[in-house]
Amino acid sequence: MSEFELSATPPKSVRTRGSQRSIIRELLKLASKPDVISFAGGLPSPKSFPVEAIEKATDWVLEHHGAQALQYSSTEGEPALRKAIAERETELSAPVEADNIQIVSGSQQALDLIGSAYVDEGSVIAVENPTYLGALSAFKLQRPTFLTIPTDEYGLNPDKIGPEFRGIRFAYVIPTFQNPTGITLSEERRKKLAEKAREYDFWIIEDNPYGELWYDHQPPKPIRCYAPERTLTLGTFSKVLSPGFRLGYVVGPKTALDPLIVLKQAVDLHTSTFTQLISARCLDTGLMNAHMPAVRELYKTQCSCMLEALEKYFPQGTSWTKPDGGMFIWVTLPEYINTDEMMKEALDRKVAYVPGSAFYANEPELNKMRLSFVTVPPEKIDAGIKILAQLVKERIDA
Ligand code: PMP
Questions:
Q1: Helices H, strands E: what count in the chain?
Q2: Residue pLDDT, tens place only, 298-307
Q3: What are the pocket residues of ligand 1 if the criterion is a CB atom closer than 6 Å to any ligand atom?
Q4: Model pTM score
Q5: For the Aminotransferase class I/classII large domain, which residue ranges apply (predicted)?
Q6: How far apart are CA 389 and CA 321, in angstroms?
Q7: What sign for the dihedral angle of Cα 38, 107, 298, 368?
């Protein structure tokens, strides 16, 4: 028996008192039981990890830069990695220098640092409706007011951005293969969002973890290309190399990165030197480019498999997004079906999803769910979707 009461804590800070554990994390505990078919997690497929290539890169780093890899390093990040990322970003989007890259411990850390650096209690920040749950959790620590950007089937609608956006701290957006919807914003809307940001004088926080996971064609260029002077773009190695590395980066004007550096010094001094050097080696040797086609093919096949199953089993009155990349499909059920409530029964029948309500900053929509298709084998995707369809049908018939 522990000598401590389970509820014992030192007096809690205001920040902690207001925050709750992520329901996805709580849910994942149940969903990760081996007999559950889980469409709930946001994990990349373990099949996508280039284990042998990382082993080679690791050996090379230890052989050539062993002492450096195991030592403390600078808060900004390892020069070799910043340079390699700057070259890659220049090639994929718009020109940047190594000085415009801040290395972080996963893009989740960037969200937290940006919240701490740029949001005060009561500050207004704009988010898509729905948006990434982890961003909401990070920003909520600062107790902001959320303004939601109206969204339609093509993603956020910049035409609906009006004078109420003047003076907000920033708009946080995921324009490519969005989490949770899988939707990609068109080039036209990206340009228009950049124009609106200038017109109403706000910054854009562009989160781009999925941009490389396209299936048949590359997505439009990042929004940073259209408003580089007022955009911070977040990148990560989590979906292209390894989430276990906890390695991400922020691209943007150096002046806007400086406050993040000051905070990061206090938070963790710097991101792991070891994984930074291994990743730099993976970029320099072309591993990343060589590795991506197999990941894209895998995810495309998995996505088609889930779309086929939805088509086959889901009843009339339901609809879903058809992503061109990424990891998620967003399903809409008839308005009277509450996916929060349905979740318990789904788990009883050994299937898991994430209820849509988790992804709204303000008023939640209760008839949505996020399905991740990347980690479940095809035959189980079919079986799991069949069970979910049955649950939905029972509610439509009732
Ligand atoms: N942003 C979005 C939109 C995400 O989906 C995720 C991961 N699920 C993250 C940020 C965090 O990624 P990481 O910290 O692993 O880079």
A1: 12, 15
A2: 999 999 999 9
A3: 42, 106-108, 132, 134, 174, 179, 207, 209, 236, 238, 243, 248
A4: 0.95
A5: 50-386
A6: 16
A7: positive
